[in-house]
Structure formats: C-alpha cells, structure tokens
Design goal:
This protein is of the alpha/beta class. 36% of the residues lie in helices and 25% in strands. The protein folds into three domains: 9-132 and 306-333, Rossmann fold; 136-301, Dihydrodipicolinate Reductase, domain 2 (2-Layer Sandwich), CATH 3.30.360; 343-422, Alpha-Beta Plaits (2-Layer Sandwich). It has helices at residues 18-29, 45-48, 64-68, 84-93, 103-119, 136-143, 158-170, 174-183, 192-195, 198-212, 231-239, 304-321, 325-328, 358-368, 398-409, and strands at 9-14, 35-41, 58-60, 73-76, 97-100, 124-125, 149-155, 214-215, 222-223, 242-252, 260-270, 282-289, 293-300, 334-335, 343-352, 373-377, 387-397, 419-422. The strands form four sheets. The protein has a six-stranded parallel β-sheet, with helices on both faces. A six-stranded mixed β-sheet has the order 9-11-10-7-12-13.
C-alpha cells in the first residue's frame, strides 16, 4: 500500500499496557487529523477498557478483527517473539503498515520482516525498539545516511544506567540500587534481561543493521553482566578519572565489514566522555563516520511516554509521507560471523586475604599471557581479610585478558572472583 501525502491514517493498536495506553492518549490528544485510533486489541477487554477513549473505538480480543477492518497501520506492543511474529507477518501480508517497539522481534526476525514489507509494498517501522524517545533509527536512516558509519557506541539500557549511576552517586551496593530501580518501575522483578545484557544486545544488533548494514544475531554479541560490580569500583574508577557504564559497541575493522568488534557490558569510561555524563534512565548513542566524525543522539530511553512518542512519530511519518518500502528493503545487509575482540587497557579488581607474594603471583600469570601491569591502586581502611585493590593493565585483546583472569581466579588468595573491565 502506497499512500498520498498527508492522508488520515486509521490505526489499530495491539496491546494496552503501559506503552499502549500512552500511545492511545497521544493519538487521541492530537488535533491535526492525521491519526485516528479505530481499534484496540487486548486480552481481557472488559478489564482493560477505559472511558477516556472515544466511544467509536472498537475493542476486541481477536487480532483477526484488525486484519479485516479498514486499518492502515497496526501498532504491535505485546512484545516477545510469539504470537508477535505471526501477527506482524499477517498484517504486512495484508498490506498494512506495522509500527512496533518490539526489540527482540526486530533483532531476530527483522531481515525477514523487512523483506516481507518490501514484497507487499508497505512498511515495518521500529523507531521505538531502540532508545525510547531518541530518534536514532531515523537519524541513522536519514540524518547521517550520506556518511559511512564506522562505529556505533552507546548506553542502550536505561535500567542499567539508573543502577550504575545510583551506585556512583549514592555510594550504594548493586543490590540496593537494583531494589530502588524495581521500586521506581525501571526494573522488572526478574531483571536478568537488562542487567545481563540481553536487552542491549538486541538493540545493538538493530543499530548494526540500520547503521552499518550488518546482520548480526544478538547471540553473536558477547555480553557481560553488571551484577559483580560494587560501589568500591566507582571509588577506584574516580581515581582513574573515569566512571563505569554499561557500554554497547559495534565497529568495523575493515571496509568489507567481514571483521567487526562487538561487545555489551560494563566498562570504564573517561569522565570527559559524553557517555559519562548520561545519568539515570537516559540513553545515548554516539556514531563515528568517515566524513561526519562523531554524531550524538541522547534522551530518555525508558518509560511509557518516551517510547510512545517514538511509536506515534513513526505513525505521523507514515501519514505525512506514506510507506517508504523502497528505502527499508534489506538489500545490502551483510551477514557476518566474525566477531573479533579489540585490544584495550583493562581494569582488574581483586578482593583478597592479604599476605606476602600476591602481587608476584599476579605478575607471573599476567607475564605468561604477555600482559603488562600499568599501575596498582589500593584504598586504605579495608580489612586485611577482605582487601580490595585494583591493577590496571596495558592494552591487550579481551580474549587474552579473559584467559588470564580465569587463571588468576583459581589462585587461593581470592575472597571474591576477580572483576575485569575494559577501559575505553
């Protein structure tokens, strides 16, 4: 379906949770005539129905009703892979545009769904799948499309960023910061997808497709959890004129895109970096291109309202410009299976039962892996039975560092497993 410019768009909404309600409010509060919410599809309609939507809105628990209705665009907000993948496919096959905030769906099935949209001359739009209200997809697709992007680095998970900045500024433990995030509604009861990096991996794979033309499965991207971090790590980071953020990064190592660097996990970032200035649940994406150098996109990355803004912005673009099926055809998306780790300096924090010979033991392991020590830092006032200290290491590949840390972890002076982070 290809529409004329600035046509009124009939919208069917699937899912009426936090984001769905915000989307419905934004659509109904508009007064430009571009968007008309005609259908809401949700489980347990009797309980979900609200009196602030116009009476002409049709409520249903059958997705098939949206396929047969005169709807131009379907908004999918149920999340997960099934039945979302089936419903999105059927909507595209029916010639209806689809707007989704479903990052896992776009990350794992995006190529096939974009091809399906192209085949049926309609559009799959997914601005809300990455960065909440930050227009990063549109920015990559349109704003800096003339550049050759070499790398994308960012803070893509608002939950992790809230936890880490509470640990940094509040001096609290990971467990305490997580509880606060859950109380404020930033973190789920089971926070694994956020804190272990799965959420950010899915978003990074989407950005790799749109910005770098690479088709990466989220499972290909190495992820490191933020769970082992402690507030003492922020004390040492500050001594190194740095802080700690969950950083997502993908970068080309050659012009063909056959070798890339890709990683999600906590890292030390210099206080001078724009990543260090992002606090709370905010997100940031920094792209680097051959011609345009660095471009920054920042804003609120979590919450119903910022995500709803991205969804409605996709709908407004459809109403104003029609389906851009030529532009979103996945021609040129390159599948790569080579994910190589980049050399970088590293931060190694240990908690030990203090005794003579510990530094010598560490030096022996590191020397065997051809890793040079840069500095040793030790804050005063800690008990000898559980003494934290930090060793900073000169640049080496992450895979080499991981092998060395495995050997160090087996040494009998450790009270806790060592923590190793790259230093950007």
């Amino acid at each position: 379906m290809v529409w004329a410019f600035c046509m009124a768009l009939n919208v069917g909404l699937v899912g009426f949770g936090t984001v769905g309600k915000s989307v419905a409010r934004l659509i109904t509060e508009r007064h430009d005539g571009l968007l008309h919410l005609t259908h809401v599809c949700s489980r347990d309609v009797a309980r979900r129905r609200v009196d602030w939507l116009p009476s002409e809105v049709c409520w249903t628990d059958r997705f098939e009703d949206l396929l047969t209705a005169p709807i131009d665009a379907v908004v999918e907000l149920i999340g997960g892979l099934e039945p979302a993948a089936d419903w999105v496919s059927r909507a595209l096959e029916a010639g209806k545009a689809v707007v989704t905030a479903n990052k896992q769906l776009v990350a794992t099935r995006g190529g096939a769904l974009l091809a399906l949209a192209c085949q049926h001359r309609t559009e799959l739009a997914f601005e809300a799948a990455v960065g909440g209200g930050i227009p990063i997809i549109r920015g990559l697709r349109d704003g800096i499309a003339g550049d050759r992007i070499r790398s994308i680095v960012g803070i893509l998970n608002g939950t992790c960023n809230f936890i880490l900045t509470r640990m940094e500024h509040g001096g609290v433990s990971y467990a305490a910061a997580l509880r606060e995030a859950q109380e404020r509604g930033y973190a789920e009861a089971d926070p694994s997808e956020d804190v272990d990096g799965d959420d950010a991996r899915a978003k990074l794979s989407i950005l790799a497709r749109v910005g770098l033309g690479l088709e990466l499965e989220p499972s290909q991207l190495r992820a490191q959890s933020i769970r082992p971090l402690d507030h003492v790590d922020f004390t040492y980071a500050r001594r190194l004129e740095s802080t700690i953020r969950q950083v997502s990064r993908v970068a080309l190592r050659d012009n063909a895109g056959e070798q890339i660097e890709a990683r999600v996990g906590p890292a030390l970032v210099p206080l001078s970096s724009p990543l260090a200035a992002i606090v709370g649940s905010r997100n940031i994406v920094v792209t680097t291109g051959d011609y345009g150098s660095e471009t920054l996109f920042a804003g609120h990355g979590a919450g119903g309202n910022p995500t709803a803004v991205a969804v409605v912005s996709d709908l407004v673009a459809l109403a104003r410009h029609g389906a851009r099926w030529v532009d979103v055809c996945p021609h040129g998306a390159k599948r790569t299976s080579i994910v190589s780790d980049a050399p970088s300096p590293h931060y190694l924090r240990l908690v030990v039962n203090d005794r003579p010979g510990i530094i010598a033991g560490l030096a022996g392991v590191l020397s065997a892996h051809d890793i040079n020590i840069d500095a040793v830092l030790q804050e005063p006032g800690n008990p000898k039975s559980a003494l934290p200290f930090v060793v900073t290491l000169e640049s080496c590949p992450e895979s080499t560092m991981r092998r060395a840390v495995e050997e160090i972890a087996a040494l009998d002076f450790n009270v806790q497993p060592p923590l190793c982070l790259p230093m950007l």
